[in-house]
# Entry
Amino acid sequence: MPATVLYKGPKPPLGEKWCFLCVAFMKAQYNDRHQEDIDRANNTPDGEVIHFDLTAELSELPPLEVAVTLGLSGVLPQAGALELCWSHATAVKLQTPSGIHLPGPGGMALPPGMNGMGGPR
Ligand SMILES: [Zn+2]
# Structure
């Protein structure tokens, strides 16, 4: 039976959250660096608690960024909507058929003639 493994890492700024993917990449790299310790934890008697402290190696791990949006990631789209930083949020470029006007902020897309421009009078 494996031991209980607890991780300790840096806390985000007050009121903020870390980007889901930044945390996942940091933890994956930490685990790669400590694979022997993880294997040992998996073979340690049940009931033992083993601590891993990511804060001790922050300068050697991928950086953490604050989440700025809830959205899909191009890296892991099957995970659904995640809280992501600017680097991990997917970029989207819309292509529209001609004659359709994209909405402005808070606006609404209307077909030609319904928006007061270019339609029958
Ligand atoms: Zn990120």
